[in-house]
Design goal:
Layout: H1 14-21, H2 33-50, E1 65-69, H3 73-85, E2 89-93, H4 96-105, E3 110-114, H5 122-132, E4 137-141, H6 146-154, E5 159-162, H7 167-180, E6 192-195, E7 198-201, E8 206-209, E9 212-214, H8 218-229, E10 235-236, H9 237-244, H10 253-269, E11 275-278, E12 282-285
Parallel strand pairs: 1-2, 1-3, 3-4, 4-5
Antiparallel strand pairs: 6-7, 7-8, 8-9, 10-12, 11-12
Length: 288
């Protein structure tokens, strides 16, 4: 197990140091906030300074607001602390019903969503949020089976992180998902790209097929945008990861396939079928 940072015992609290040297565990989170705060702030600030130009876009925008949804108050405390230190505004919900209400009341930029909760589980919350719009969703769950991860992505989740988790990794994934919806301000890049009946708008992060709007999540838009850059080219899954994901080293082939199925389904709903699977290689965009 990798150690995200090194802590020294404070006031004899060796148990706290040992806990934070490992990973956050469900139902057993005991956080010594003062012990961790200084070091975490140093790490996030140094990371921010090292970010490339395309990664600094978020810091020029209004502070993103993250909705934290988990029935464990200790987990919510850890997430609130880590995200707050990374420069995000947060709001919270302790169950699925409360989450839907907070999402409706607040302007939320991303949802960190636990799956196993009372009142309403995370998968049902995800379904209802997808009926409302395309707010990015990062699933957080103690269920580590592949089928559960695939189900979460099929329902419209943008990423999936299992417990126990590293707060630094959670922050990195949140940043990565948010960056997928941000287009660099490059005046040399056409703001609208079209290929036959398929058209995308980089500024609005929207897509249309034959005049009909296709409602895509930021991840799905990133994949379609990548294919549209070179129609007819066969993109391997690795190339799609590199071009459509900022945190691509944690994305599996099955994850790419799940998102691509959703893109193709949404295109089919408006009469389009331009994406072809090239078995053994990847995907390509055909004539539209």
């Amino acid at each position: 197990m990798s150690v995200p940072w090194t802590l020294t015992p404070a006031n004899g609290r060796a148990d706290v140091c040992a806990h934070w040297a490992g990973m956050v565990r469900v139902g057993a989170v005991r956080v010594a906030m003062n012990d961790v705060a200084t070091r975490f702030a140093e790490l996030t600030q140094s990371t921010k300074k090292r970010l490339p130009v395309t990664d600094t876009v978020l810091y020029d925008l209004p502070m993103p607001k993250i909705l934290i949804v988990d029935d464990d108050p200790h987990i919510r405390e850890v997430l609130r602390f880590a995200l707050g230190r990374a420069g995000f505004e947060t709001c919270e919900a302790a169950n699925g019903v409360e989450a839907l209400l907070r999402h409706q009341q607040d302007k939320v930029d991303l949802v960190v969503l636990d799956i196993l909760m009372p009142e309403m589980d995370g998968t049902e919350v995800c379904r209802r949020l997808r009926q409302r719009g395309t707010t990015p969703i990062v699933f957080l769950s103690s269920k580590d089976d592949e089928i559960d991860r695939i189900l979460g992505l099929e329902l419209g989740g943008d990423d999936y992180l299992t417990k126990p988790f590293s707060p630094r990794e959670l922050v990195a994934r949140v940043r990565a998902v948010l960056r997928r919806g941000v287009v660099p301000d490059d005046k040399s890049v056409a703001r609208t790209t079209a290929h036959g009946r398929l058209r995308i708008d980089l500024d609005q992060v929207k897509a249309w097929w034959n005049g009909h709007e296709i409602v895509l999540t930021v991840t799905e838009f990133g994949l379609l945008r990548t294919l549209l850059r070179q129609p007819g080219k066969v993109f391997t899954r690795e190339e799609l990861m590199t071009n459509a994901y900022d945190f691509h080293n944690v994305v599996s082939d099955r994850t790419i396939d799940s998102h691509m199925r959703r893109v193709r389904t949404k295109l089919a709903n408006v009469g389009g079928d331009p994406i072809e699977t090239v078995h053994g290689f990847g995907y390509k965009l055909n004539d539209c």
